[in-house]
Every structure is written in structure tokens, then in C-alpha cells.
Amino acid sequence: MTIIIINNKGQYNHRIQRALRYLKIPCELVSNELSIDEIQAKNPKGLILGGGPSINEAGLSEDYIKHFDIPILGICLGHQLIAKAFGGKINNSESESYAKVKINILNHDNLFSDIGPKMEVWSSHKDEVEKIPDEFEILADSSVCNIESFKHKDLNIYGIQFHPEVHHTPQGSVIFNNFYKICNQY
What we know:
5 helices; 11 strands
């Protein structure tokens, strides 16, 4: 019944674990160097792909992301890795920064349930998804990023450019609780 958090060596990965524990969501933070078999042996209920320094330094293969048939949430770099694994396009942002951003929620189902129509978030825009894969739809955008969040049309795979684990995203706990509900319904 555990959510596995893949640590992609980002500065906020431990905060993801702390945020989930605070919400009493069972979780375990693991290295992104664990094999598919090692992750599978943990029998996870869902996966969170944490942030990291750069898409080029991530170290996760596309097979890794596509292998699991459980809900997946990608945060920042994890969001970009999901897009890349399914054929999306990643590029450097025009506004490379961490900043408080107001996002527009375009779809309130599942991940953004009980939030909206706007949400204040702490977002990183060094790299970002420029084009989503064909089988995905955009869930949220902002004035600085056209793809703040997306979802696979048929699978429980979600990506968010922003960081729900920090206090600068006041409704971040709602995102984590909604993801946990998705995992429990699967």
C-alpha cells in the first residue's frame, strides 16, 4: 500500500516524503538507481517521480517509466521524464527561475479535484515540456508555461511542473491526497 518516491537527486525530494508522511500517506523514498525488479518487489500502490537537476542528468530510461501499471505522478523533472518517455518534447524555459505562479486549472477531474479554477504554486522553469505526447491532455497552464500539468488520456499517469511539497504551494496537500485517492481506486 506504499507510494514509492523516486529520488532524482532534486533539492525537494525529501520534502515530498515529509509531506506524504504528514498526510499519513504510506511512502518510501528510494534512489533512481534501483532496478525495475527492486521497485516491483516493494509492491507499490503508486509512483512519484521526484525532481532533479536536469532532464539530461536524470538517468531513468523510458522503459522504467512505461513498465509500471500503477498510477504515476511526475513532479518537475518527473513531469518532463514522463513526457519524454511517451514522445513529448522538452526544452529550456525562457524564464529559467523558481517563482510563485498562478496556474489555470483546465480540468478539475482527479488530480485537481476540489481545487480551482486557479491555484497558486511554486514552480521551477529551467526545463519544461514544450509539446505533450499525443495520448496526453493538458490539465493546467499559466502565463509562464503552457503545460503546467498533463494527464495520459487512458492511464493514471500525471505530470506537474510545480512543487506541491513546499509551503509556497498552499494547496499542495490536496494534490497529494487526490493522487493517493487515485492510487486507492486503482
